Amino acid sequence: MDEIMARTLSFGVSGVNGYPVHVEVFGISGIPGMEIIGLPDASVRESRDRVNAAIINSGKQMQPKRITINLAPADLKKEGPSFDLPIAVGVLIATGEIIPDPGLNIDKIALFGELSLDGLVQPIAGALPMVISAKENGIRDVILPEKNAKEVACIEGMNIMPVSHLKQVIEYFEGSETLPKQKQISYESLKKEITAGATDMALIKGQKGARRALEVAAAGGHNMIMIGVPGSGKTMLARCLPGILPPMSFEEALETTRIHSISGKLPPNSGLMVVRPFCAPHHNASVASLIGGGQDAKPGEVSLAHNGVLFLDELPEFSRSAMEALRQPLEDGIVSVSRIRRQAQYQSSFMLIAAMNPCPCGYYGSTRKVCRCTPQETRRYLDRISGPLLDRIDLQIEVDSVPVQEINATAPAESSAIVAARVNAARLIQLDRYRGTGKHCNAQLNNAEVKRYCTPDAEAVRLLDAAVETMHLSMRAYQRILKVARTIADLEHSQMISSVHIAEAIQYRELDQKYWR
Amino acid sequence: MITDSSGYLYHAWLASASLPTVQAKQLLDEYRTPENVFHGFRTGHKPKGITPAGIKALENSASEQNLAKLDSLLMQHHIRAFTVLDPEYPEVLLQMQEPPAVLFYQGDLQCMKQRLLAMVGSRAASYDGRKAAGRIAQELSRKGVGIVSGMAGGIDSASHSGCIEGGSPTIAVTGCGLDIVYPSGNEGLRDSILKNNGLLLSEYAPGEKPIGWHFPFRNRIITGLAHALIVVEAKIRSGTMTSVQHALNQGKDVFVYPGDPASPYSEGNHQLLREGALYFTTGEDILEDLGWLDNPEIIRQNSVCSGRMAPSLSPEEIAVCEILKPGRLSFEQIADRSGLSPAILMSTLTMLQIKGTVEALPGKQFQLKV
Known about the structure:
The complex is a heterodimer of chains A (517) and B (370).
Chain A: E1 4-14, E2 17-28, E3 33-37, H1 42-45, H2 47-56, E4 66-72, H3 84-94, E5 109-111, E6 114-115, E7 121-122, H4 127-136, E8 141-145, H5 149-152, E9 159-163, H6 166-174, H7 187-193, H8 208-220, E10 224-228, H9 234-244, H10 250-262, E11 278-279, H11 287-291, E12 292-293, E13 298-299, H12 301-304, E14 309-312, H13 320-325, H14 327-332, E15 334-338, E16 343-347, E17 351-356, H15 375-383, H16 387-391, E18 395-399, H17 404-408, H18 416-433, H19 447-453, H20 458-471, H21 475-491, H22 499-507, H23 510-514
Parallel strand pairs in A: 3-4, 5-8, 8-9, 10-17, 10-18, 11-14, 14-17
Antiparallel strand pairs in A: 1-2, 2-4, 6-7, 12-13, 15-16
Chain B: H1 9-16, H2 21-31, H3 34-42, H4 52-61, H5 64-76, E1 80-83, H6 91-94, E2 102-107, E3 115-121, H7 127-142, E4 145-149, H8 155-166, E5 171-173, H9 187-195, E6 199-202, H10 214-225, E7 228-233, H11 239-249, E8 253-256, H12 267-274, E9 278-279, H13 283-290, H14 315-324, E10 329-330, H15 331-338, H16 342-354, E11 358-361, E12 365-368
Helix pairs in contact in B: 1-3, 2-3, 7-8, 10-11
């Protein structure tokens, strides 16, 4: 009898979740060849050529046998090159090239990694969900590419063994070498390491009004739209936002890193994401690239921005369908992506920051340049943004360009760190207030909750009523003003919403009157 | 089978052939009424002085399909008409070149009897320009002067609205059939003109599209109806300048609002003033120049704003008002000069807006309300 059977353990990814995959290798005398079954896609099928070369370049022989490889469960489609490593080990065992150390429990060691032809182990996408799934399935030992080690180093109670070459794995299974162990890195220590990725607010000259609005938006998690002439600094303001938002909790970091991990967006050697993501898709983005899609239902920008900021510059230039598709994730914080072969749900709770010019030429209302647009053109441009989308945006501000003399002069402005401290304090108040309701910031309140939590004092009510009368505010605006006023009061650690808070909040609805009348 | 359920079908037939006004007038002189023109034409009588192209146009316009369409449009939109020979025809128009042979109208013809002034300006007007137009129109209207304009966007719309506010009926002369509202979105203004005893006039038959050359051409009717022309805001090359030309040809005075010399929106104003146009800043100036100061003032009951807050101001509010006295400023400038924190300044500005002391302008600018 010269046929041997080997079984190694690996993991695949479906949606944002990993699932165990048993790699069964069966070698028998016959016409030499290698066949992979169990619904492999092209990149998995090509694995046999990489495995072949990698084995030979690791000092082992490729025995002339007829080899069948089954990826169980056989009814799920397998994709990606991460099965190279378990297949190579399985083949070596099944052909008798490796006599495994009897002390090792081979099918309790998770293996994944891509092989290059010379036997190097390359990083893969989706390492984080795979390791989380391993933990859930009671697996402790994981062998993975060196460059993915840091990504999973936060997960407690695992024995992570990073490798860089197939040779190391062979020696480990033969029992002649041990593998290095990845030290666990606590999330707290990762947080300390960060060098701020966001633009510092100290770099913004002038723009006192917009800075304040940004702070309020961050403090309450409110969506915001900025209208202003070209070059007024809308993009720069938006880029400051991740730096003043409170740092992600461990759970949030895990959720966000998971999504980035499966879409292969994590740079090699990076750990859990600590800084909130900032996604700025170009305005020609398709619905699928924003929401998620493709034949394997990949996550889109709204999910990559999960727990972070989605910045849409030149909002009216986005296609109508793309803008309308944003409504569901904005409302539910989750998107369902359905394709014929795959259905997946991705979290997508993000802050939307939009920027736009006031008219096609950009200079409507500017004091420095003349607008070349006809009123109809301007109207059509503004009307590209639908009411329902606008309805989900709490803060609307105008950004004017800063005069040259102000860019050169003026004292340095407050840095992001100072603003972030105030924002954080306001967020803690909100977390405390909404404990047990499943909400964590003011922006998430529905109308009933606005009534319950955002009660202004008598004078503030009178003011708001007068404002509705004189400034022609809609009922929709009324709710938004109350919510934003709640955040402003939280920033001042005030329990009560007073007329000062309401009056400031009204300023953030100014565009309703000036533009979308 | 031709049905003339509106009574103005033959007016519309004649107008929709778009004959030169001289030829159309000649037909009417010969046959007296459009109906006679039609029947005479149908019985094969070849009218004198009409070019072959004109005859072809009349034939096309007489197709049953076209007549049925005209009839239904006239009925649906309650459009009526009169010709140059009818007693309703305003005499002032007869004095100008190319008076329209047929005029269509909606609303009340009575309002042509009041003293009328034309107000024109660019469609893409500045905020200040529209404000000024509304203010002047309202002031004149309150003194019993009706405003004639073109119902376009910008200055035209502001002038009509101002006139309605002031209490006098306003007249709009359009560049397309009265069944079409141009620019689209101006339905509200049209309804409000009609509701307030105003008048819509057009020399174009129902169904006629708003074609570019119609507009400068109809401007002669706007200036023709009025005693004088008021230019609120004009660029150097603009339709407003054709109105000025018409007014001068018709021997009417041209009043020009000065506007900000630094603003490109009023370049044309200053050119006109240099060329000798009449200068004014308030409606009173115009009335004085025209010798119309005897007009009785219209007192409207509902124009008094009720329930406004008593303007008692806090120290911050007074400080901001002081800063705004010289003119409009941006939020940043007010913040710098007042030294108030952005949060406090925002709420202060809101309070001032609610109290009606300050108004917000596009571009995050603020100014004291006049």
